[in-house]
Write a structure and sequence with these properties.
The chain is an alpha/beta fold. The chain has 9 helices and 11 strands. The strands form 3 sheets. It has a 7-stranded mixed β-sheet. A two-stranded parallel sheet has the order 6-7. It has a two-stranded antiparallel ribbon with strand order 10-11.
Length: 253
């Protein structure tokens, strides 16, 4: 079987999250996890990933899925340039830490922490501040950790954020004078589509654009709200076809 090279791949490992941030564009937490058979299928079809993003929900809740990814990386000897895990920082176990160590031996691992005021407010409300601080210190001692400090955050009225009001944003801005939160009128979605176009195949079997696969195994045009993602999915890798044929189908749509 012909294996492909992917420039950017995003896997939605789970839709479950231990937080309920008001600005979340994904939507309410769902007890849904990616079938490990989907992960196995991807690794059998791909030999190189330049940039590999693991997202959720809260991806560090997906213990079985991370183990499957770790096992495939070690077994298949797949070449991965960099791996990015986006986490809220409140979930970390010895098992996860051990698997991250192993993944880091085969790829440049970066832990990217959600650090906006809405996340921090929810973490405080749930009494997870100390736990998060301890986790961040541990992660920083072991891995490359990126904590964004943007001065302006764009908030789209989708997912859970569709219930946010102008008064909510005014209050959060008042309490966080060093940052500014503004409703973006779908600018996040538009920017995402420019940055991560639909996948296509070049003649040398390189996946151009982004192979964005949701928790159900659907190839989707956006990493956005669950509702938007499910409505606009293009093709599913669960079909009995090669990944190459599936991506060629996406090109035709």
């Amino acid at each position: 079987m012909e294996r492909l090279n992917a420039k950017t791949m995003i896997l939605e490992l789970t839709r479950e999250c231990n937080l309920a941030c008001k600005h979340c564009f994904r939507g309410d937490s769902q007890n849904v996890y990616m079938d490990t058979k989907i992960i196995d299928y991807i690794f059998k079809n791909v030999c190189r990933i330049n940039e590999f993003l693991l997202t959720g929900g809260e991806p560090l809740l997906a213990l079985e899925q991370i183990k499957c990814i770790k096992d495939n990386i070690m077994k298949e000897r797949i070449n991965i340039g960099s791996t990015i895990i986006v986490t809220n920082g409140t979930v970390l176990t010895k098992d996860i830490l051990n698997m991250l160590f192993q993944i880091d031996t085969r790829t440049d691992l970066e832990i990217r922490l959600s650090n906006d005021a809405f996340h921090l407010m929810e973490i405080k409300e749930k009494g997870l501040e100390l736990k998060r601080k301890e986790n961040i210190e541990l992660l920083k001692s072991c891995f490359n950790v990126y904590v964004p400090e943007d001065k302006v955050y764009l908030v789209d009225r989708v997912g859970r954020a569709k219930n946010l009001t102008d008064e909510d944003l005014e209050l959060i801005n008042k309490n966080n004078p060093n940052t500014k939160y503004v409703f973006s009128n779908n600018r996040i979605l538009q920017e995402y589509r420019r940055t991560y176009p639909l996948p296509s195949l070049s003649e040398d079997n390189v996946i151009e654009g982004t192979l964005n696969i949701d928790v159900y195994g659907n190839i989707t045009p956006t990493y956005y709200s669950y509702e938007t993602e499910d409505k606009n999915s293009y093709s599913t890798i669960k079909r009995n076809k090669t990944l190459k044929r599936i991506i060629n189908e996406v090109e035709k749509i």
